[in-house]
Amino acid sequence: EMTQSAISHQLRILKQMDCLILPSMHEAYGLVCVEALCLNVPFVATETAGSLEIEKKYKGGLIVENSYEGLYTAMKRMLADPNVIINLKNTIDFKNINQNDIFEELEEYM
User: Fold this and answer.
1) In whole angstroms, what is the distance from residue 1 CA to residue 47 CA?
2) pLDDT in tens, 51-88
3) How far apart are CA 42 and CA 32, in angstroms?
4) How far apart are CA 108 and CA 85, in angstroms?
């Protein structure tokens, strides 16, 4: 079980990131992507049902082909053009990020 201190530490690290990368072959619901968005950190995720749902609802994400090449291309693009991350941050839809809704969505996957 995670302690409150451990969770706080992880969130502090996440908040310092320019972008979260979630490479996953199968992800029911990428809670870490929602956590990142709450902290104004955009995400790049491979195409899974969960990542597509999160990006559709909250924006702020870049969904890539579920492959090494898809991730490589996205990371290369972000390193070459810092505006990619800035533009993703500008699309985060904070009005749709509601803690109660997130908990309800999570319960569907538990």
Assistant:
1) 29
2) 999 999 999 999 999 999 999 999 999 999 999 999 99
3) 11
4) 30
- Coil, helix or strand for 62? strand
Closest CA to 41 of 61, 64, 71, 23: 61
* Residues 33/6/95/101 CA torsion (nearest 10 deg): 80
64 forms bridges with which residues in the sheet? 46
Nearest to 24 by CA among 44, 45, 42: 45
Which token pair is 23? 């490479």
* Residue 107 and residue 31 in contact, taking contact as beta carbons nearer than 8 Å: no
Alpha carbon distances (Å) from 92 to 11, 34, 36, 72, 75: 18, 10, 10, 23, 19
For residue 66, the SS3 value is: coil
Amino acid identity, position 9: H
